[in-house]
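Collaborator request, handled under Task 6.
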Amino acid sequence: MEASPGLAMFALTAPTKLGLGKRADVLPKVTAPTGSNEVGFQVEADTEVDQFFAAAKSIGATVLQEPTLLDFGYTFVVADPDGNRLRVFAPS
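Structure tokens returned to the collaborator:
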């Protein structure tokens, strides 16, 4: 388990991890109703993040966060039709 203020990350069967974050600390700010989820998809390189972002935009996904560099890596977030968050990231 990895932990930091507002986040606990549990390693499941490789390469799956379960992260539990404090709603108030998540970026971008959560606007979906309570009970919604965020699913993260790890890729190897920043260029892959950009490719997935272009694909998501091309199908009309709701962009919640443009590709940006955060403390854990390069990432973006889109929402599915139910408001669940889908994050693609390349770790730092």
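The cover message to the collaborator said: "The chain is about 15% helix and 45% strand. The CA atoms of residues 50 and 67 lie 7 Å apart. Please let us know whether this matches your experimental observations."
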